[in-house]
Design a protein that fits this description.
- This protein has about 1050 residues and is α/β, with parallel strands linked by helices.
- It is built from 34 helices and 34 strands.
- The chain has an 18-stranded mixed β-sheet, sandwiched between helices. A 5-stranded parallel β-sheet has the order 6-7-8-5-9, sandwiched between helices.
- β33 and β34 form a beta hairpin.
- The radius of gyration is 38 Å and the shape is globular.
């Protein structure tokens, strides 16, 4: 939409505002045009600002007196006066005795806005036409805002001088030949500016039209440049963005919350916008520091303040309940603006802005808070996340506070860059530190910056710490663990530890995110990781170090190598009742570290890595019975844990590269242990007695070279959900697992299992979802899949002796049986398994029915908005591809009309003599082909001698539509595989009808969770996307 005063074009023909836009749309929406300033084709921001500072009048009214003086103009003039707008109206403002023409032209030049009221007889006056010409000159040269009103005439009549307007102009044209062209150009230019046609607005209701005009004039008279403090860097764009969310000028009541980290600029942004828009409301007020004022004076006092400010008279409120009733009854018909700053409790919002219907139509409520949950719970209309400063903005803001122009510090640029990096875009830190450094010399700057490395600025810390202080106890502990140990690490890896420590991380992490203390961000292929602002992290470290920043023994959490080293070389025999969690890499300090750990009486979390070839055989003499999580790589002792170690709170025990032959003597009762993971335990002879582990859910035995048996008590275990036994070559017999009714994942790999050695009872595990028997030596699976109705994943990779598979369950989503060199028969799984989205059969002898399998997979509901992968030996599919493949790794696909409506996705086919082990085989770039033609260099692929393999990858439109790249007007697309070892490559569209015919009940919602993960990266420079998936997906 185009605001009044803005020029626009349609099909190269200027048209008026009413041709396509309603006035409500104009007020409620912004318009993008090719002009940098509204109503000024040649002006700049500075020109407009200069004009506004030197102007004597706010508005100049140009009109034909006999048409509108006593009607429309008089009403408009009165409405503008009521809002204290300075107006030039020739019959009132012209000093008696002045020469009319020079005074009038000077008044035009001294006005910020010129309103031209075109009426039937406007062009009958040479005076009006001279005014118009002078106004348009000021518009071009001085950036004056021009807004036309077409009162009783159509813009096209003014533009083309037609009908009565044209007849009037013809008379003046005949009498003033020398001016006619200048006037005509002014008429054309003015009529091409979007303005008002009162007869088309509000059903011609003149009073409503005038009110809307006045509101817009007020908005134009208070631009951001005049209200935003020049010291507030980066505020203009943020205010524009936030203002659009408020939808000023539209009806109804809107509540908008500004949310973000403390010191991020929420209050500054809210108050700046408040100052700009407050004139649009019948009443307005700011309630500062709601959190603090509530604790000091109570909510009823704040209710009093709001009502008193809005009604400009003293109002008394006896109770919060009474205040709610008073606010609703007194404000429900008033259009008000209320800013509630620093809200931290839902009860505050309920008392001060309970519901939308408390306020009259057009009211706006702005709320600032550090807690997103409050805003969501209160059902605000929009949550606006605060944006921290960019690097350039941070440089500007810091310079305004730190740079002393009278006595500039030497080497300012270099010194300031350290602060910019330290503050990481937080306005509070830049302002506080900048102001402190303003009058300091270079040496003092260097000293202050060195101090920040060890001791943070307390003013900044105190502001940030407010969010921490508002947390529950378990949330505080959770935050400190993440700040000290988990930044830039994956939440999935952390959950196990945080659960073990009793921090309820699912809900706790949600709360920390809503309070802007942490975030979760995507780090390329590493996936999602925890992150937080640098200074929030520092605040966490500051809390942990407390009153003893130089003594790590007094810290609840220790993670820095230099601090751990210091602890090792201090008196390691002293008892330590402070340290609760430690993560350490102590390759050179193993024996000393064991002494330190032996004295940590309150330790709950221990994560340590030592040399696995350490010569000493002494481990710790004591381990805390408070331990809930242990992950120890290279435990130095060959014997069991200390006899007095009775960790009844232990939830997770992970040991790697240990020389222990047994973990403990006899049966140890660990009632809370849920995870036991033993990796590379090369001397381990036996597992623990599982009678003492009643809650065990996850067991991993990996690369335990001497392990010959699993304790018989294992067969009676019923709580286990995950079992992984791999690379245990001496392990031959498993206890029966038939009683493990909760088992969901079973992996027995690389264990040389032959026929008859597979654990009995697998076929009765009705809750089993994933089964992996890869790299074993059996020739058949001696159990039935009939009862495995929930099985989603079956992996049989490199089972070289496997000849055939029994009938597979219909629930199967993923089948990976590549490199089963003897496999020739799978059964009719194409017909039975309707949910398949990944099938890998490379290196097998299964070469038929490829097309039948592909068609079956394409009908799966699980891939409707995702993707599908099929890897087969041979060339059945590429030989029958609808359009021939091309030689190499590039293909141009011509797109028909309605391609995105009639088709469901892209089907890509690659041929290679290699086994698609490279990640690049699953990396395809797609971009618009502007020429729309195939290259003359394209050569059709032909079958060659030697074994070749086929990769088929389907990517649905549903997985691409959300990207900015998606455009249904594309005529041709170029696809290129990143791996240049393809001998052939092709792409075709998959018709929607080819995916039809599948019933809704043919798959479960959980099947979608197993579809191939794809990553889509948009390259805006080349207008391309890259679609990729991890090669592990198919192996």
């Amino acid at each position: 939409m185009i605001p009044p005063g803005e020029r626009f074009m349609h099909d190269n023909d200027p048209v008026s505002l009413n041709d396509s836009f309603s006035f409500d749309q104009i007020l409620s929406q912004g318009v993008t045009t090719n002009r940098s300033m509204a109503s000024s084709p040649s002006s700049s921001h500075s020109a407009s600002a200069s004009c506004s500072r030197s102007c004597k009048y706010d508005v100049f009214l140009s009109f034909r007196g006999e048409d509108t003086r006593k009607t429309f103009v008089d009403h408009l003039h009165s409405a503008l006066k009521q809002h204290l707008i300075e107006i030039y109206k020739d019959d009132e403002a012209l000093p008696r005795g002045d020469s009319i023409r020079p005074s009038l032209f000077k008044s035009i030049e001294e006005s910020r806005i010129a309103i031209i009221i075109f009426s039937e007889n406007y062009a009958d006056s040479s005076w009006c036409l001279d005014e118009l010409a002078n106004i348009m000159k000021c518009r071009d040269e001085r950036g004056q805002i021009v807004i036309p009103i077409f009162y009783g005439v159509d813009p096209s009549e003014v533009r083309n001088q037609k009908r009565k307007f044209g007849e009037a102009f013809a008379i003046q044209e005949a009498q003033n030949v020398t001016k006619a062209e200048l006037w005509r150009k002014a008429l054309v230019d003015a009529s091409n500016i979007a303005g008002w046609e009162p007869k088309h607005i509000a059903n011609g209701n003149e009073s409503k039209v005038i009110k809307e005009i006045v509101d817009t004039i007020l908005d134009r008279l208070c631009p951001l440049s005049s209200n935003v403090d020049e010291d507030l860097v980066g505020m203009t764009t943020r205010i524009l963005d936030l203002k659009s969310r408020l939808e000023i000028g539209s009806g109804g009541v809107r509540m908008v919350g500004i949310w973000g980290v403390g010191g991020g600029g929420k209050t500054t942004l809210a108050s700046s916008l408040y100052m700009e828009i407050s004139q649009h409301f019948q009443g307005h007020c700011i309630v500062e520091n709601v959190r603090e004022e509530t604790s000091k004076h109570g909510l009823n006092k704040l209710q009093e303040n709001i009502l008193s400010a809005l009604f400009k008279s003293e109002v008394k409120v006896q109770s919060v309940v009474e205040g709610k009733h008073m606010m609703k009854s007194m404000l429900c018909r008033r259009k008000v603006l209320v800013l509630l700053d620093d809200v931290d409790k839902l009860v505050q919002l309920e008392a001060l802005a309970g519901k939308h219907n408390w306020f009259g139509s057009g009211s706006r409520i702005i709320i600032t808070t550090r807690d997103q949950h409050l805003l969501r719970t209160h059902k605000v209309d929009h949550v606006y996340p605060i944006r921290l400063l960019s690097n350039d903005e941070a440089i500007q803001l810091f310079k305004r506070h730190a740079y002393n122009e009278q006595d500039p510090v030497a080497d300012y640029e270099t010194l300031s860059s350290h602060v910019i990096s330290y503050a990481s875009g937080l306005p509070l830190a830049l302002r506080v530190i900048g102001s402190f450094l303003y009058d300091k010399n270079k040496n003092e700057w260097i000293s202050a910056l060195d101090k920040l490395k060890d001791i943070p600025d307390l003013e900044v810390m105190d502001i940030l710490k407010i969010s921490y202080d508002g947390l529950e106890t378990y949330q505080k502990e959770l935050f400190l663990d993440i700040a000290c140990f988990w930044r830039f690490r994956r939440p999935d890896d952390a959950m196990e530890i945080l659960e073990a420590c009793g921090y309820h991380p699912e809900i706790g992490i949600k709360v920390l995110r809503q309070k802007a203390l942490i975030t979760i961000v995507d780090k390329d292929w590493y996936g999602n990781v925890f992150d937080m602002h640098d200074l929030v992290e520092e605040m966490g470290h500051y809390i942990v170090r407390g009153e003893h920043p130089k003594n790590p023994k007094e810290h609840s959490r220790v993670w820095k190598h230099e601090e751990i080293k210091e602890m090792c070389f201090r008196d390691a025999t002293m008892e330590n009742d402070k340290t609760e969690a430690i993560t350490a890499d102590v390759h050179d300090l193993s024996s000393r570290f064991c002494k330190v750990v032996s004295n940590m009486k309150k330790l709950r979390w221990l994560e340590v890595t030592m040399d696995d070839d350490d010569k000493g055989d002494r481990g710790p003499t004591f381990l805390s019975n408070e331990l809930q999580y242990i992950d120890w790589v290279g435990y130095p002792a060959t014997g069991p844990f200390p006899y007095n170690f009775q960790p009844t709170k232990l939830v997770v025990l992970k040991l790697s590269n240990s020389k222990q032959k047994e973990l403990w003597e006899g049966c140890k009762h660990l009632p809370q242990l849920k995870v036991l993971q033993l990796n590379n335990m090369e001397k381990l002879l036996s597992t623990p007695d599982f009678h003492g582990l009643p809650r065990l859910q996850k067991l991993t035995l990996e690369s335990c070279d001497e392990l010959e048996e699993i304790h018989p008590s294992f067969g009676n275990h019923t709580s286990l959900e995950y079992l992984n036994v791999s690379c245990c070559p001496k392990l031959r017999m498993f206890p029966t697992i038939v009683h493990m009714g909760n088992l969901k994942t079973l992996q027995i790999t690389d264990s040389n299992l032959e026929d008859g050695e597979i654990p009995s009872g697998i076929g009765e595990l009705s809750n089993l979802e994933e089964l992996n028997l890869s790299r074993n030596y059996f020739s058949l699976l001696d159990f039935s899949f009939t009862q495995l109705t929930r099985l989603k994943v079956l992996k049989l990779f490199s089972c070289n002796k496997l000849i055939e598979l029994p009938e597979l369950p219909s629930s199967l989503v993923i089948l990976k049986a590549s490199y089963c060199n003897s496999l020739t028969t799978i059964g009719d799984f194409q017909r039975n398994c309707k949910c398949l989205c990944i099938v890998s059969l490379l290196g097998t002898r299964i070469v038929n029915d490829g097309w039948r399998l592909l068609q079956s997979m394409l009908k799966g509901k699980a891939i409707e908005n995702g993707s599908m992968l099929l890897l087969l030996p041979g060339l059945e599919i590429p030989m029958g591809f609808t359009t021939p493949l091309l030689r190499g790794s590039r293909y141009t696909l011509q797109l028909p009309e309605r391609w995105c409506d009639d088709f469901s996705g892209f089907l890509m086919c690659a041929v290679s003599k290699y086994y698609f082990l490279s990640r690049d085989f699953l990396k395809i770039s797609v971009k618009q082909e502007l020429s729309g033609m195939d290259s003359k260099d394209d050569v059709v692929w032909e079958e060659s001698d030697g074994d070749e393999n086929t990769l088929v990858w389907y990517v649905s439109f549903g997985s691409l539509r959300h990207t900015a790249w998606w455009d249904q007007t594309y005529k041709a697309l170029s696809f290129e595989n990143a791996d240049d070892r393809c001998s052939g490559f092709g792409v075709r569209l998959v018709a929607k009808k080819s995916r039809s015919g599948l019933t809704e009940t043919s798959t479960t919602n959980s099947s979608v969770d197993y579809t191939p993960d794809i990553k889509i990266e948009h390259d805006k420079v080349f207008a391309a996307i890259t679609i990729s998936s991890d090669a592990y997906t198919v192996y």
